[in-house]
TrEMBL record:
Membrane topology recorded in Swiss-Prot or TrEMBL: Single-pass type I membrane protein
Database matches in SMART domains: EGF, FA58C, LamG
Keywords: Disulfide bond, EGF-like domain, Membrane, Repeat, Signal, Transmembrane, Transmembrane helix
Domain F5/8 type C as annotated: residue spans: 1-129
Protein name (record): Contactin associated protein-like 5a
Chief localisation class: membrane
Entry-linked Gene3D superfamilies: 2.60.120.1000, 2.60.120.200, Galactose-binding domain-like, Laminin
Keyword Repeat attached: yes
One Pfam assignment: Laminin_G_2
GO cellular component entries: membrane
Localization per record: Membrane
Listed PROSITE patterns: EGF_3, FA58C_1, FA58C_2, FA58C_3, FIBRINOGEN_C_2, LAM_G_DOMAIN
Length: 1243
């Protein structure tokens, strides 16, 4: 039946007017319905209905396709989703347009869900058109040769397209080469497609360093895959299925010169010079076109330019049928071991999987309780002979191979017994054997896992996990196993299997790991290794560095070298700069390759002197840095002797510099780019007022030093000097580093004073990942911060109640709501921080310093957030639930949204935000919080380790060996759990384990304990000084494993100098910053870890401790201010010190790095909570020198005189805040202990 203007044909399974439809028997364990389209067709859409006149319909199903009706492949939509949404009633029609068409003869519909009040019922309609195919079959020894009419073919443009399906993971599909060094080769390698292409580069022809562009995965699945190669000059588009790679070719030329012929399916002469891939293709190729020429059609018609050696023109179908083991806990296949005429037994099969662990085969032996287990363990194959409940013998194979056996490729394994030996063989590796005490007879064979019944009944028990993957070609005692008989219930038994298909799926294609993260995977999910990238998070999306020097200062850092990431989570990487924080302004300094003065002689306009400057940051990073700064400047020192900058006759420039965009600039100072002047002209002090520059006076000695401050032109990328060729003529110049200050994003704010008002911006471009962060303050009980809608998808962040911020979105898996509840109201007219992130792996929400909440995304759900409306900030498109208050520093994927500029032209919104705490100057430091007052402001330092009116005064304490302080607090987890029933059930929610620790210390003693956090479940974190004075960080998060130990290079910190330490852990990643040490960690293990920590603790600590911060708690300061609190107990003598002040008198050069624990064999991917509730802090230190204490007392008394009023108000607010926190934390909770200094028992 013809469709009207949509498809060429429509196939009806059942017509709605007639009664009926398909419904399986209730006893069918795996119901499905299969369509035979008679020939291969191109299917573009499908439609479903329920069974006519019934309550039976399918609400969700899988779609499989096959050429033969035996080997099936699951259809997956654009983002990898295999499940199709079905019907909600029996009569409605649900049409699904396929994102990519299916070219196949057979279709199979597998119901997943149906009407719970009815049964499975289905009517199907298929849309598509006829498919024309020109096929050639290659047997692994054949090839097609396309010979040119002339000796060689030279092309600047090529288009090659084909479709193939392969029986093997290796083989050449296309090859051509020329004598001058050009070549093109397309080959299958390890199930992936590699393209080698070189244009006129003889060096690459004779080298072994050819680089391939690789695409695709699992391409040896015996199903069709499409390939398209498009080249124009050096630009190439390489497409495999739906994935495209754009790249430039190697070589000097723009044309591809191939001599004599192109070969398809193999290389006919393996010894031919320049050929490096030998194995021919084994499979079928169809619709092969080379620059518009149908090569297979020419071969079928036996045209003279085609040579077809042993090629047939119909695709032979191998009888390889796979079975998928779906569950890592309950899948199994049991078969009876058939007797062998030779005695013993022999089992052979092939498998493929991504999982590093899983049981492949288990069988009970005649001599109970002996049994054999063949399993994948830690990515290697292991055979275990259990002789008793306690004794076993095992061998393994695969240790020497370059790739692990869980690489997704097919592997062959055989297990056989003969005499008193059992032999295991993997692929083509040497066999491994186990000796037996008696002849072996096997009982029932369990493939892939064990039944849920008692191991005593079956003799089978999963050692760790069941096998999750595919098996094929199973034979027992040389008899092939017909799995169709198993499916029909006529042979053996099974559970959680999918027959006639291999459901393996490459979750690293495409690679969702950002910023160069390495993707690895299991059967059900993927993981990103962010080591060395400068980013962390589930997909390496979040930068571990601050965006500016201003941000480092607000976090409490002092001057030094820092890595900054100017675009945050954006595509630009981090760069190292110097942050000068000694002045009122925080200067970011970026150096280049030529900072010393350089003398220039002998240059003319025809042959000028040219110097290009290479900065420590890339041009893109420099542009982002300059754009995000309030002001930038760069000094040019230019001394001259008879060397002019401008021609005195016509004013044309003789020397100039080039800006960041490559434009020539002729001004030498100031911020007026349109004026050809030097600084002396702007300041009206040139030595000759007839000229605008001192050097133009053409004297024996002059100077035109100036400061360039028009930041849109900075930095200077090049300088050109052209007038130093006369007698005694020379110039001496120096270009200073780029210096910028301020962070424009920090105080970019807008005030919303009408509920119906909003700001609108372009649609969010955040299909796969998005992070949103901002600050807000309000007195309203609720309001939408931002919203962006699509047809069905949406994303929204809002204040849903006075104490709850919610982050909600829908990417096609149903609405998801993530909420964080604060124990104090958030509509208190103070600034609060919000950060929401959504990626293909998880979603998270952070509010202030409250625990991070996150949800894991479903492994097989929709991935892309498809939006099409404008982004609304401060309201919604419906003009309802608008936000009233201030929003500032709105950043989306590393890009700051300019709220102020849009607010200038929007009614109901004004740029900026009123109040003292909204100014761009930093009033409160070191995590101090600015609190608005009616007649001013006050700094709340309750969450800072510092004190004073501006949270800048260090809190330091000296202890003797016997003194200690115990501090106890409760983390408010109980009130922050997200218990929203509206969150989609396919997301899993939890809190991410992480800590932030910072402190300073000074000592001359080792070993020593600096900090310890421990729980009553015997978990602990310890920071100690080893015997050699080096820093060690101990993490014992799993009580059944050895601790992880991170140690810097063995540089002693026991030198009587002050050292600042910052430690941040998130999951398995640890980041350390010290003032001297370069972070370069290794991990060690041993049985005496706990003893070494206790040794350090038993020595106590003789020295000074300052500015101790653990997450949002400052325990040392709390001990000084709350001595009467039930949460604080003091032993021995406790006295304030001033060792922290020493940091201000010296310039430190902090170096930062990322430290990651090596993974133990039994490691898992689950983070463990470190702090479960009550935390105890014990501090043990000794007195500092009397002179240091005298200096502190003098400064402390002077500070009281200068700021008595503000200090009194500040200390009152600080004590009030701690009392409030103490009262809140006094609720019952789990108990955890934390020590500083000496190791003691729980207080």
């Amino acid at each position: 039946m013809q469709a009207k203007g949509y498809h060429d044909w429509v196939f009806f399974l059942w017509i709605p007017k007639g009664a009926g439809g398909w419904s399986p028997q209730a006893t069918d364990r795996q119901p499905w319905i299969q369509l035979d389209l008679r020939n291969r067709m191109e299917v573009t859409a499908i439609a479903t209905q329920g069974r006519y006149g019934s309550s039976d319909w399918v609400s969700g199903y899988l779609l499989l396709f096959s050429d033969t009706g035996r080997a099936w492949k699951q259809y997956r939509q654009e983002d990898g989703v295999g499940r199709f949404a079905g019907n909600v009633n029996a009569d409605g029609v649900v049409l699904q347009k396929l994102s990519h068409s299916i070219r196949s003869r057979f279709l199979r519909f597998v119901p997943l869900d149906w009407n719970p009040s009815g049964w499975v019922g289905l009517r199907v309609e298929v849309y598509g058109c006829a498919y024309k195919s020109y096929v050639a079959d290659f047997d692994g020894r054949s090839s097609l040769l396309y010979r040119f009419n002339q000796k060689s073919m030279s092309t600047v443009k090529d288009v090659i397209s084909l479709r193939f399906k392969s029986r093997q993971a290796e083989g050449v599909l296309l090859h051509g080469e020329g004598q001058r060094g050009d070549y093109i080769t397309l080959e299958l390698h390890r199930g992936r497609l590699a393209l080698y292409l070189n244009l006129d580069d003889t060096r690459l022809r004779f080298s072994s360093g050819r680089v391939a562009v690789t695409l695709g995965s699992l391409l040896d699945d015996q199903h069709w895959h499409s390939v398209l190669i498009e080249r124009f000059n050096k630009q190439v588009n390489f497409t495999v299925d739906s994935h495209t790679e754009h790249f430039r070719t190697k070589g000097e030329g723009d044309s591809l010169e191939v001599d004599y012929e192109l070969s398809f399916g193999g290389i006919p002469l393996p010894g031919k010079p320049g050929t490096f891939l030998r194995k021919n293709f084994h499979g079928c190729i169809e619709n092969l076109y080379y620059n518009g020429i149908n090569v297979i059609d020419l071969a079928k018609r036996r045209k003279p330019q085609i040579y077809s050696g042993n090629v047939t023109f119909s695709c032979s179908e191998p009888q390889l049928v796979s079975t998928t083991f779906l569950s890592s806990s309950s899948s199994f296949l049991s078969l009876r071991a058939m007797a062998s005429s030779l005695g013993g037994f022999a089992v052979r099969f092939q498998f493929r999987t991504w999982n590093p662990d899983g049981l492949l085969l288990s069988t009970r032996l005649a001599l109970e309780p002996q049994r054999l287990e063949l399993q994948i363990s830690n990515s290697r194959l292991r055979l275990t002979h259990h002789t008793s409940a306690q004794q076993k013998e095992e061998v393994s194979t695969g240790e020497a191979r370059a790739n692990s056996i869980n690489d997704g490729l097919w592997h062959s394994v055989s297990l056989s017994s003969r005499g008193l030996q059992v032999t295991m063989t993997l692929d083509n590796e040497p066999p491994s054997t186990i000796d037996l005490e008696d002849h072996m007879e096997a009982g029932d064979l369990y493939f892939g896992g064990c039944p849920s019944s008692s191991p005593a009944d079956t003799g089978c028990e999963n050692p760790t996990l069941a096998f999750q993957g595919c098996m094929r070609l199973i034979s027992v005692n040389s008899q092939p196993v017909d799995l169709n008989l198993v499916r029909q219930g006529r042979l053996g038994n099974y559970r959680e299997l999918q027959f006639n298909t291999c459901g393996i799926h490459d979750r690293c294609l495409p690679n969702f790991c950002e910023h160069g993260g390495q993707c690895s995977q299991s059967w059900s999910t993927f993981y990103c290794d962010c080591s060395g990238t400068g980013y962390n998070g589930a997909t390496c999306h979040n930068s571990i560095y601050e965006v500016s020097c201003e941000a480092y200062r607000l976090a409490g850092s002092s001057s030094g070298y820092f890595s900054i990431d100017p675009d945050g989570s954006g595509p630009l990487g981090p760069t190292k700069v110097y942050c000068n924080m000694t002045e009122d302004k925080v200067w970011t300094v970026v150096t280049h390759n030529s900072t010393d003065p350089i003398r220039v002689q002998g240059s003319t306009l025809q042959k000028p002197y040219i110097m290009k400057f290479n900065y420590s940051a890339s041009p893109e990073q420099l542009i982002a840095l300059v754009a995000g700064s309030e002001q930038c400047q760069q000094e040019i020192v230019y001394s001259c002797r008879k060397s002019r900058l401008f021609n005195t006759w016509d004013g044309s420039p003789l020397s100039w510099w080039v800006d960041q965009a490559g434009e020539r600039r002729t001004y030498w100072g100031g911020f007026l780019p349109g004026v050809q002047q030097c600084s002396c002209s702007l300041e009206e002090n040139c030595i000759d007022m007839n000229y605008f520059c001192n050097c133009d006076a053409d004297t024996d000695s002059a100077n035109d030093t100036g400061v360039l401050s028009y930041k849109e032109h900075l930095p200077v990328s090049e300088i050109v000097i052209g007038d130093t060729n006369r007698t005694f003529s020379e110039a001496l110049y120096r270009i200073g580093p780029l210096r910028c200050y301020g962070d424009k994003s920090t105080w970019n704010a807008a005030s919303f004073y009408q509920e119906s008002s909003y700001l609108h911006f372009p649609t969010l471009q955040t299909e796969l990942s998005a992070d949103l962060s901002f600050y807000f303050k309000t007195s309203a009980p609720s309001g939408v911060f931002l919203e962006n809608l699509g047809l069905k998808d949406f994303i929204r962040v809002e204040l849903s109640s006075p104490s709850v911020v919610t982050f909600s979105f829908d990417v096609g898996n149903g609405p998801v709501i993530l909420a964080v509840k604060s124990h104090v109201p958030l509509n208190d007219r103070q600034w609060h921080y919000v950060r929401a992130e959504r990626s293909v792996k998880e979603a998270s929400l952070q509010v202030d310093q409250l625990p991070l909440r996150f949800l894991e995304a479903p492994s097989d759900g929709h991935l892309r957030l498809r939006l099409n409306s404008q982004l609304f900030v401060g309201g919604t498109a419906a003009r309802q639930r608008g936000f009233l208050g201030c929003i500032r520093t709105l950043t989306i994927n590393g890009v700051t949204v300019n709220l102020e500029e849009r607010a200038k032209m929007t009614p109901g919104v004004s740029p900026g935000c009123p109040g003292h705490c909204s100014s761009s100057s930093s009033l409160c430091h070191n995590r101090g919080r600015c609190v608005e007052k009616n007649s001013g402001y006050v700094c709340d330092c309750s969450q800072s380790a510092y004190s004073g009116p501006s949270c800048k005064e260090e809190v330091s304490v000296s202890f003797d060996r016997e003194s200690s302080v115990t501090y106890t607090f409760q983390e408010p987890f109980s009130v922050m759990q997200n218990r929203s029933s509206q969150a989609s059930s396919v997301y899993r929610e939890s809190s991410r384990a992480r800590e932030n620790m910072a402190f300073s210390f000074m000592t001359t003693q080792s070993p020593a304990m600096l900090l310890t956090v421990s729980t009553f479940s015997q978990q602990y974190i310890a920071v100690i000084l080893a015997r050699n004075g080096s820093l060690q960080i101990w993490y014992h998060l799993h009580v059944d494993r050895r601790p992880d130990v991170f140690s810097p290079r063995p540089t002693s910190l026991v030198d009587g100098r002050l050292h600042r330490i910052r430690i941040h852990r998130e999951g398995k990643d640890i980041y350390l910053q010290t003032v001297i040490i370069l972070c370069s960690f290794w991990i060690t293990g041993g049985e005496n870890f706990d003893e070494e920590v206790m040794q350090a603790g038993s020595k106590g600590f003789i020295g000074c401790l300052s500015s101790v911060q653990f997450n949002h708690v400052a325990p040392l300061k709390a001990a000084l201010l709350n001595r009467g609190s039930s949460l604080v107990s003091v032993r021995g003598h406790l006295e304030e010190s001033n060792c922290g002040l020493l940091a201000d008198s010296t310039t430190s050069h902090p170096l930062s790095g990322k430290c990651e624990s090596e993974k133990h064999d039994n490691d898992t991917r689950h983070d463990s909570a470190v702090i479960g509730g009550v935390v105890t802090v014990v501090v043990c230190f000794t007195l500092c020198a009397v002179a240091v204490m005298t200096r502190f007392l003098y400064r402390h008394r002077q500070g009281r005189t200068d700021a008595s009023v503000s200090e009194k108000e500040h200390r009152h607010n600080l004590e009030t805040a701690y009392r409030r926190e103490t009262a809140y934390q006094a609720e019952p909770a789990y108990r955890t202990e934390k020590w500083f200094g000496k190791s003691t028992t729980s207080a």
